[in-house]
Amino acid sequence: MSKQLIEKQTNKINDYLVNTWPHSTSLKAILWVLNNLLMVMSIQTPRLDDTELNIINKKINTIPTGEQRVYRKALEGVLFYLGNERQWQLPEKIKLNIADTNHLYFEELTKGTAHAQQIFTRYQQHKTHFFTTRAKLTPCFVALMIGFEIAPLSLAHVCAILNNTDSITDEIHNPRLAVTHFGCGSDQPQVTHYHIPIICYRLLRDYYAQPLEQITVAKLHNHLTLWLEEEGLSGVKQGEWPRRFQISWYTRFKLPFIFIKDLACPERHVGISRDVTSFTIMADDIYAIDWYAKSFDSIKSSKSKLRWPHEMLLKDSKNLDAIEPPSWDVANILPRMLFDYTKHFIVYGGVKKANLALGSIKNYTSLKSRLELFPLSYVDAIDEEAVNVWAKCVYESIDSDIVKVTFYNFLRFLKHQEQTDTLDLSLFSSPLIPPSVSPARLSVEECDHLIKTLIDNGTHHPLRSLFCVIATLLGFYAMLRRGEILRLRFKDIRFKSSTGLITITVTKTPEGNAKSDTTRKVYTTLPKRYHLLFKHLLEVKESASCEQPLLGFEGEQYYSRQLYYLLPVSRALRCLFGNHLNFHHLRHSGVHLFMLQTLHCLNDTPDEQRGNLPLAQEALSRKSVATRYDYWFEGRKVNEVNDAAFLDEMGKQIGHIHYGTTRWSYLHDIDWLLPIISPTHSPYTQREYTHNELRYLLGLKPDSNDLSRILLKLSPEYANKTLMQKRSKPITLSDCELREAVFGKAIKTKQGPLTIDHNLAWEKLHDSEHSIHGFIFKAMFNNKTLDLYALSFIWANGSKHHINPMSKKQRTALKNLPPVILSNDKQSLQITLACNTKNASVYNAVFKHEDWGWLSSKFVLCINRKVKPKRQLVLIKTLFAHKNDTIEVKKIPKGETLLTIYLTPKVALSADVLEYTQNFFHLLQSNEAQP
C-alpha cells in the first residue's frame, strides 16, 4: 500500500474508533500499528494468526518507555476495527476481546441516558416553539433534528448534510437523505440513503432555502455547547454527541443495538445509484448465439502471431465506423476485449475527462505485451474460478506498480462485460480496504418482469427458456451464486408444490466446491405463479440420474450450461434495467428480500402492509415467511424463538459467517430499515399532530384557517368532531396520509392481477410444429412421457442449441417425398421412393441437416433380378448416402426398382420417440401444419 493510502486508512480507522470504541488512541499510534501490520502479513488476505500478532507484540515490548502502552492500545483498537468492521479472521481470544469491548461500549453508552433524555426534551420544546413562531432555522436546531429524528450520526456527517443542499434526493416520489461517505477512495463519492420523516424533510428543505454559511465541525460543536449552556444542561464533548443520539434512539424506539450502529455509520452500506447506464442489448439479442459453437469442442492455443486490432483504432481514431470489431476468438478473447476497451476510451473518454488525448489512451491500453503471455479462452472467461485465477496470474506477473494500476483498470472494464462479469476485484485490493461492491437489486415485481421477458422472447428451443427461468428463480429466491446454480444436482433440491417450499443443499460436486468450502442448506418459498414452471422442470428431470445437474441436458458441459442458460439472463437484465446489472445481482436482490421477510416476521407487520403490490405482499406474507423458517421454528411461534439468532440463521443460508459481510455486500442503502422495524417510522402508524405542526407541514401560514378544509378531506374522524374538539384536540393522521397531502401522491396498495400465468405463456411458446426437437418435447410433455435421455441424445447429436424450424425449402421438399412411415418392426422410419437424381435432391434437402444427426441411414435397393444395379448403386453412393451409411441390394423376381431408406436411432430409444417423429413428418406432409 502507498503511504497516502495508509494515511487515509489511518484516518478512517480513527473515525470509526471515535464513534464505536469505548477507549481512546491517537492517529500516530494507529499509523505505527498499520505500518508494522503490513510488514508481518505473509499474504494479501483478511486474516491474522497468533504468529503474526506475536511479532508485532514483541516489537512493542522492545519500546523502553510508556509509549509501549499507547501502541498496545492502538493495536487493540485496530484489531477491533478489523474484526468488527472488516470481518477479518482473527485468533479466538481476539474475537472474545472484541465481543467484550462491544458490551463495554454499550455500557458506557447507557451512562449518558439521562442526559440524552434531557437534551431531547429541550429539543422537542424548541421544535414546538418553532411551529408557532416560524423563527429562522439555526444549524444547531437542524443538527439536533438530524441526530434525534433521522439517524444518530456523527457531527462530521451532520455538518456535511448541513453544507450540501443536494442532500435530499428523489423529492417528487420518495424523499430520502443522501449521506456521503468519508474517505471512500473511489472515482465517484459513495452515499447511503436514509429514510427521512416528512417533518424532517420540511425542516431541512426550509433550512436549505435560507442563506447558508458553510459550517465546520468545530463551529457546530460550539453552537451546540452554547445552546446546552442556555438550557442549563452540562456540556458534551464533540465525540460524545453521536453517543447521546444513539442511546436516545435506543431508549425511545427500542431498536436492536446492531441496527442503531448501522444507522450511525453510513460507511457500513453502499447506496444504489439512480443513474442507469444506457441499454445496449435489445430484446431480440437475449438468446442470440453470437459465437461459433463448434469451436469450443477443440480449443487450442494459436501458434500464429496474434492480431491486436485495437492498434488500428489508435492509428485511425477519427474514423471509428470504418473499423469493424473483430470476431470472438474462443481460444483467446483478449484481443476483442482490448479493442472494446480502447474504443470506449475514444468514444466516452475517462472518468474525469470526456475527451482524452490519444497519448493518454495509448498509455491506458498498453497491455498487449502482458496479455500475450496469458491468453484467456471463452470457456475460462465465463467460469468464475478460472477467470479469477487468470487475473491473479497476470497481476502477480507484473513488477511495475504503474502497469499494475493499468491492468487493474482493464479488469474494472472486464467486470462490466457479460463474459467476465464474475471477476472479483477485491482480490487486487488491500485487505484493509472494504471489498468492491456493485450496488444494485431488483424488486420482486422487476424479477417477475425479467421472467416474463425471458419467456416472451424465447427461442424455438423447448427447454432453454425454462432452464433460464429456473436459473433466475434460484438466483433471486434461493440467493444462489451462478456457480452454485450450475453445479446444483437433481438430488440437491426438493420442491413441495403445496407450499412452494424449496429445500436446497449447496455442497461440493465433481464440478467444484461452494465458495466457502462448506455445505449449507437453503430454505426458500416461491410465489404461486412459478410453481408449475418448477414442477415441469422436475418432471423433465425425473427420469434422469440424481447426479445429473439440475439445469441442462444429460452430458452437457459446464461451460455450455453457463453460456446458454445464464448468459441470456444477464443479457435480459441489461436489456431491461441497464448495463450495470449482471446475474449476481439476483443474489443481491434475494438477500435483500430475505432480510425484509425476517424483519417483517420479527415485527409482526400486518400482511396488507408488507409491500405495495400483490406479488410483493405474497412473497413477504406471514405464510411465506413461516414456511421458509419452518425448519427452525418447528411449530413454535416467532416470539418463542430467540430473535437475536435470526441474523445468524440468515447468514447460514446465505453462506456468510458475519452479518457485516451481508450488510456491506448485499444490503444496499438503509432507507428501507426504519419503516419496518420502528412503528414510529411506519407510514401506516397513526400519530398525533398539533394544529401548528400541520400548518407548517402543509405550507400554511401560522394563523391560516385553510387547515380545517384540508383535514376534512384527509381524515373522516376529523369531520365527525365538534367545533370545540376540532380546535383543541390534536389531529391523528398517518405518515402516508400526510405524504398524500404534501406530495399529492397516495401510498396505497396498487391493485393488479394476483396471478400471471407464466406457465401458459411458456407452453404457448413451444407450440412450434416445425422443429423436430420442439415437436418431440411437446408430444412427450402432453402425453406425460418425458424422457430426458432421449431428448438429450437427439440434442447432442443434432443441432444442439441451434434449434430452428424447418425452412420453407425443407418443408417443400418434404411434401415432394413419399410418406414417411414406421417400419414393420417399429424400430425405424422408412421412405420408399424411386432411385433417381430428382428424389436424391429432394431427400438431401430434408435430411442432410444437423437436426437428423441422431439417426443412421440404411439404403435397401430392391431391383429386378434381370437388371444390373451398377448405375443405381453409383447414384446411391454419390447422391444419397453418407460415408458410414449401410447399402444393401435385394433382387426381386419382378416389379419395378425401388429404394427404401431406413432411418434408425443410433442408440436404442423408446418407441414413443419414433412415433412422435413420424407424426411430425405426417403433420408437415399432410398440410395440417401452420405455415
Describe this structure in words.
By secondary structure, this protein is of the alpha+beta class. 50% of the residues lie in helices and 7% in strands. The protein is built from 43 helices and 13 strands. The protein has a five-stranded mixed β-sheet, covered by helices on one side. The chain has a three-stranded antiparallel β-sheet with strand order 1-2-3. The chain has a three-stranded antiparallel β-sheet with strand order 4-5-6. Strand 1 and strand 2 form a beta hairpin. Helix 2 packs across helix 3 and helix 4 packs across helix 5. The protein is elongated, with a radius of gyration of 34 Å. 35% of the residues are buried. About 1% of the residues have low confidence.
